[in-house]
Amino acid sequence: MMFATELLVGGLLAASTVLGAALTRVEYPNNATSKAQMWVYVPDKAVANPPIIVVIHSCQSSAESYSRNSKIPWKQGSDKKGYITVWPSAPNSCWDVSSPRSLKNGGGGDSQAISNMIVHALDKYKGDPARVFVTGGSSGGMMSNVLAATYPYLISAVSLYSGVPAGCFVSSSGGVAQWNNSCSGGSSRATPEAWGNVVRAMYPGYAGARPRMQVWHGSADGTLAPQNYQETIKQWTNVFGYPQTAVSSVKNFPERNYQTDNYGDHLQGIYATGVGHSVPSNLTASEQWFGL
Ligand SMILES: *[C@@H]1O[C@H](CO)[C@@H](O)[C@H](O)[C@H]1NC(C)=O
Ligand SMILES: *[C@@H]1O[C@H](CO)[C@@H](O)[C@H](O)[C@H]1NC(C)=O
Ligand SMILES: *[C@@H]1O[C@H](CO)[C@@H](O)[C@H](O)[C@H]1NC(C)=O
Q1: Quick check: keyword Transferase in the entry (predicted)?
Q2: 0.85 cut: is pTM over it?
């Protein structure tokens, strides 16, 4: 008998060690038309009033597969620092960054679904509303820009990798989750003011705080032309009223052949010479940008 009990206890302990924290699908109050799924990773040692980090996947991916990608180290960061990561999963193969639903505050698209996930995460995990952060690569980088434009009041800072300006993938026919060759190829160019107007039009009349933006791009990006880096910088410099030239630059930082350009406390660009699509996430540098 005793032997059997010991075996049972030992088995339970082993099972709980093996199970531990895991990416889990969570239902959330969602008033958007988009039925994007919400997945969450709560580390075993979550801190009180945890920061919430939204990690947005690329095309032909999902919350589950992105969270297993070795170049996307946010689960490990969560284990180490105790913040919670929210992993939205797109209803289409890419995020909808082309239709009016998604390109507008309250439009009902994927961006609104993700905003609902942020609200729910803050409520369910008693998250810190002053420490909500967004990151993503490629299509997730595009969505990061769109979220910053459509739901600025929910987000403190963004660190986005290899995306395009907010609104650059707009579909002339209003299509959902459409690819846009003009933008991806780097031919969608506009003045800083025109790009800034695109952001302002996504939430007309908004005059509150906006997230601090960190923009990464590789010079050898063959999927989303490097010109999209310059266009994104033009966009946010205009929104923040910064000059077009960086106020300070650091060569070979945070890595060799990367250059960091600071435009003001709300905008930093990091251009990776020789790096293709998509620039791997640098957990340390993104966490630093988030103040974690
Ligand atoms: C959707 O829900 C959010 C809160 O999660 C709320 O702020 C917003 O007003 C709602 N929108 C509509 C159209 O009901
Ligand atoms: C692609 O996006 C640009 C803006 O970046 C827009 O002017 C153009 O109409 C879009 N193309 C299509 C086919 O929707
Ligand atoms: C990431 O950035 C930090 C500085 O924030 C730097 O020290 C580190 O070398 C970078 N990581 C990699 C893998 O290059």
Answers
A1: no
A2: yes
